[in-house]
Design goal:
single chain; alpha/beta; eight-stranded mixed beta sheet; 16 helices; 11% strand
């Protein structure tokens, strides 16, 4: 067992000093893993050096990820420090590092306030590290991060809401609907671009028709359908794990969203009625080759858009018309990082989840020993990290029976 002591020192400025006490010299030592650190750990360390962590906080994070990286031992670490010493900041960065190592993590705390606080700091850290991601133009994928609990007892902000399990289930339920889900919306966009001229009975070379009403109808319909496709694609990317999307699919989603924006900008800009109607909906593939070169160049936007839509329609391996309970179980099962209170973690015992690698308990000094058993008994748990300060508020027992028996509550920390 390792204990990480975080304290304050004053030498002109306040900073953290990290002390490590090894209770057993051989408890965590693993020469094999020490020699096989690998490039991934080194890359993580380099990224950590670019953060605002001071040296002591960085050492704490590196100590944890190095120990968790070892596959030959199980460990318990204690992180102690008074208020204001950066425990939450250190924990949120540790969560990011462990998630980067593909560890399955359960982040617990005795109170909703503490859970929300750590979740908020983690999302901030995640966005900071994701700024240079290859998927620029798409929001940060959060499908493998889940926060669950009683939403009416949590102070849920818009930033936190995106990982809330109940909210995610609602959003994915709409995306998987058979009547208005991802497949139907892509199909509507394809139908609009392919069949507009047939629906409105307008010929490509109809010089006698000067009524702009059909084009105005098309503008409104295009904007509505294109926006539905955009919202659906962004929701799928945000709320589903990254493993659901191949690199080719991600690239095509980006191209499609940019193309739809370009088409709408052209249609809503200062372009002639004749150009817009000929450019996007009225020329057939055969007519393009023989038409004006200026028109031909712009007409390619429409056909490229159709190519992307048909590719996504055939390549996205996603369900259609599934129940909310199925979506809920799917989200929890595929989550690599789960936030919840200690008491709420009992739900995980009833779900088909992948074994948890690391359990982190924040404010552990307020957790009763009996309460800590709930997450500690999860199948496959290998490591536990307890964070807190036993000099702060102790566990509170509100049972009149326990008070009558003069029962004393002991903290797990």
């Amino acid at each position: 067992m390792h204990i990480l002591f975080i304290s304050r020192a004053f030498d002109g400025c306040e900073h953290l000093i990290l002390f490590m006490m090894t209770l057993s010299q051989d408890d965590n030592s693993c020469g094999l893993c020490a020699m096989q650190v690998g490039d991934k750990i080194q890359n993580l360390v380099e990224k950590l050096r670019q953060t605002s962590l001071n040296q002591s906080q960085m050492n704490a994070v590196i100590s944890i990820i190095s120990a968790v990286h070892c596959k030959h031992s199980n460990l318990v670490k204690l992180i102690w420090g008074p208020p204001g010493t950066g425990k939450t900041k250190t924990v949120s960065t540790t969560l990011w590092a462990l998630k980067s190592l593909k560890c399955r993590i359960l982040m617990c705390s005795p109170t909703n306030i503490s859970v929300i606080g750590v979740c908020h700091r983690f999302l901030q850290a995640l966005k900071h590290f994701s700024r240079q991601a290859d998927t620029d133009g798409l929001p940060c994928s959060l499908g493998d991060i889940v926060l669950f609990g009683n939403k009416y007892k949590m102070d849920i902000t818009e930033e936190i809401q995106v990982v809330l399990l109940d909210y995610r289930v609602d959003e994915l339920f709409k995306c998987f609907s058979s009547s208005s889900g991802w497949k139907q919306r892509i199909g509507s966009m394809i139908s609009l671009l392919e069949n507009y001229n047939l629906q409105h009975n307008i010929l490509p070379d109809d010089t006698g028709c000067s009524d702009p009403l059909p084009l105005l109808d098309f503008d409104k319909q295009f904007y509505t359908v294109a926006n539905n496709v955009k919202v659906c694609m962004l929701n799928l990317w945000t709320h589903l794990p990254k493993k659901c999307f191949s690199s080719e699919v991600v690239s095509n989603i980006l191209d499609l969203l940019n193309l739809l924006k370009t088409m709408w900008d052209i249609m809503s800009g200062e372009v002639s009625y004749d150009y817009a109607r000929r450019g996007f909906c009225l020329l057939s593939a055969e007519k393009i080759e023989s038409s004006n070169p200026v028109y031909s160049k712009r007409d390619k936007l429409r056909f490229r858009c159709l190519e992307l839509l048909k590719f996504l329609q055939n390549s996205l391996d996603l369900p259609v018309n599934v129940s909310r309970s199925w979506i809920r179980n799917y989200c929890v099962h595929n989550a690599n990082l789960t936030f919840c209170t200690i008491s709420s973690s009992y739900h995980l015992h009833d779900m088909e989840t992948t074994p948890v690698d690391v359990l982190i308990i924040d404010e552990a000094a307020q957790v009763r020993e009996c309460e800590s058993v709930i997450p500690l008994r999860l199948h496959g748990l290998r490591h536990a990290i307890l964070v807190g300060d036993d000099c702060q508020l102790q566990p509170i027992v509100q049972s009149h029976v326990m008070c009558f028996l003069q029962h004393k509550s002991h903290a797990v920390f």
